[in-house]
Design goal:
alpha/beta
Length: 353
Amino acid sequence: MAAFGIHPMPGFMIALMSNKLRWGVLSTANIGLKKVIPAMQLGELTTVTAIASRDLAKAQEAAQSLGIAKAYSSYEELLADPQIDAIYNPLPNQFHVPWTIRAAEAGKHVLCEKPIAMTVAEAETLLEVRARTGVKIGEAFMIRSYPQWLRVRELLDVGRIGELRSIGGFFSYFNADPANIRNHMESGGGALMDIGCYMIHASRYAFAQEPKRVVGLIDRDPKMHIDRLTSAILDFEGGQSIFTCSTQLVPYQRIHFFGTKGRIEIEIPFNAPKDRPTRIFIDDGGELFGSGITTETFPASDQYTLQGDAFSRAVLEGSEVPVPVEDAIRNMAVIEAIFGSAASGEWVSPRRF
């Protein structure tokens, strides 16, 4: 590790030679160019100093437009750069684990886009890699660093809505383009892997438990074969979560947390805007017309900036990343169980870890 000089084993305090972690980005994927990289360039603890593409011209164009110092024509070149401390991996899903492994073996910490793997078995391989290399590996669920989600956690912990018993959520957009990677089966496309994973993660986060069993119902696109409409019930020890996700419906997202004494609603839970405040609503259930609703507003902030800083802080301080490999594996286990349930028509218990 060039910038920080101390062996990056978890739990060690890393000696600072810079006040920012130096990041490299694998690929010129849209999520990186349009959302993550510009946000990380504004971070207190992050700076993106290199980007790689199989097409050098694309890498150079991205570097110039985003103020990135280095452009590489291969991922291997970027990983060999001793002045890169961490890697952001937004490659297609089937390349998440292979290139996360290669980055870790090059001594780089890795923040990998969700879902971290195509299968549970594939995700589990990252545990050995992390232990062997001593780097930090995390899954990029940006909501875990965002103020409105942190506030929901606080409210649940203090019993503001009593005992959490039910979660209801919806997440959808419309994309029927066969050329789009989100519609490619071989790339782990479809609603459940792309956006249903957020609902699963949010449910596990809120209940602070793993579901005992799940049931799923899937409607597949007749030509592309990806799941275009998926609904699921997650049965927890403490209650139930019910959600629907779709890649071929009107764009919408909302999530509700129902307790024995109240309800919390997140207005824009997943694609929180960076240019305007966000809101959550806390309802005491006094009556149905909203007079018992309290609104909490959070100043505009970029969740990708906060995500990058949270991961970087964990590296610099030797603390745990927001979403470690263990959590990513458990989320993947629920995804697999929902797919299995939809195929069998039966309840399925996710694998335990």
